[in-house]
Write a structure and sequence with these properties.
By secondary structure, the protein is mainly α. The chain has a single domain, classed as hpI Integrase, Chain A (Orthogonal Bundle). Helices cover about 50% and strands about 5% of the residues. The chain has 10 helices and 2 strands, in the order H-H-H-H-E-E-H-H-H-H-H-H. A two-stranded antiparallel sheet has the order 1-2. The N terminus is likely disordered.
C-alpha cells in the first residue's frame, strides 16, 4: 500500500496498482476513465487542467498547459507509448470531435454537443472512489490528486530517489521549494535519509 506523506490529502499508487487499475478499467470498458487515469498520470497535471483538455490538445506530441492554479505555462511532451495509448482510447470512445472536451458531462443546451461542460472535481472524485471499492485498489485516500502524486513517485523512484529527481519534480510541479515537493509526493524521513546515504565518491 502506498505511503502517505505528512499534510497530504491524497495518497499515491504503487505502479503495480496503477497498472492494475488501468487494466481493470479496460476490462470493464470504462474507456473514458482509463483515459482520465492515463492523462492525469502522464501529464502530472492538476485536475483543473486535465478537465480543461480537449481531444485536439492530447492527440499530438506536445501540449502547452497554462496552469489554472498558478497561471504558469509548461510544455508537456507525450511519449510514443502515451500517444499510442491515447489514440487507442480515442478510437474506443468512437473518435469524438477534436474540439470537444475529453471529460464532459452529458448535460448540454439545445442538443449542441459543443455546449457540454467538463465534469466537476467532485464528480471525478466520486467516480474514482467507486473504482477503488469495486477493484479493491490498495490505497488509503484516493482523490483527484492521486494520479499527479503517482507521477511524482514514478519520477522519483525511476531516477533512483536522488536529489536530482526532486529538483526535476520541483521544476515540473513548480513548487515553491524542494521541501514542498518532498511533502507533496509523500517522501518519508527515512527515504530522505536514504538519498543522502546513497552518495558515493
Amino acid at each position: 500500500m502506498a505511503n502517505k506523506g505528512k499534510n497530504t490529502t491524497a495518497d499515491w499508487l504503487e505502479m503495480g496498482e496503477y497498472r492494475r487499475l488501468l487494466q481493470c478499467l479496460r476490462d470493464d470498458k470504462e474507456y473514458l476513465w482509463e483515459t482520465y487515469a492515463t492523462l492525469a498520470f502522464c501529464t502530472g497535471c492538476r485536475i483543473s487542467d486535465v478537465l480543461g483538455f480537449r481531444w485536439k490538445d492530447v492527440l499530438g506530441t506536445t501540449r502547452d498547459v497554462k496552469e489554472k492554479k498558478t497561471g504558469k505555462t509548461r510544455k508537456i511532451t507525450f511519449s510514443e507509448s502515451t500517444q499510442r495509448r491515447i489514440a487507442d482510447l480515442y478510437g474506443l470512445l468512437g473518435y469524438p470531435e477534436p474540439d470537444l472536451h475529453v471529460f464532459r458531462s452529458t448535460q448540454h443546451k439545445k442538443n449542441d454537443p459543443y455546449s457540454l461542460a467538463p465534469y466537476t472535481r467532485q464528480y471525478v472524485n466520486q467516480v474514482f472512489k467507486e473504482f477503488k471499492r469495486r477493484y479493491g485498489i490498495k490505497i488509503g485516500n484516493f482523490s483527484s490528486h492521486t494520479f499527479r502524486k503517482t507521477f511524482g513517485r514514478y519520477v522519483y523512484d525511476s531516477m533512483g530517489r536522488t536529489e536530482e529527481s526532486l529538483t526535476l519534480l520541483n521544476k515540473i510541479f513548480k513548487h515553491s521549494s524542494i521541501v514542498v515537493t518532498k511533502t507533496y509526493i509523500g517522501i518519508t524521513d527515512d527515504e530522505v535519509k536514504g538519498v543522502y546515504e546513497s552518495i558515493e565518491f
